[in-house]
Amino acid sequence: MEVALPYRGPLPHRLVTRINAGVNALRASPRWGERVGRHLTEITYVGRRSGRTISTPIGYRRAGDVVTIRVMLPEAKTWWRNFLGEGWPMSLRLDGMDRSGHAVARRDARGRVSLTARLDPVGSPRAEDETADTER
User: Fold this and answer.
1) Considering the entire predicted model, what is its pTM?
2) Which of 41, 73, 89, 96 is the most buried (most CB within 10 A)?
């Protein structure tokens, strides 16, 4: 009898962890942070099933209070599935501050996945609650 092992993605977990740490270090760097931060940031959300707070670096495009995140290799990743259906609350680190909002994941006819995040207005009650939580 054959036992199916869970798919672990195209890259080893340790390598992915190191790459993510490197991206976060670049974003925090005084020399490269501003340049890298124009296209890369970190999304933070609470997992629907696990209830854990999860943060992962992502590439993004921004138009005002709407942020678009393309998920590369969506079949090898699961984090974006938290945002299927009606979507899910999240926050993004933008312009040196955490911005809360709501993101919805969509898969197009070609299998590509993108998240559309609508940011809460700066100073809204939900945004202030998240800022207070991160300062504790």
Assistant:
1) 0.71
2) 41
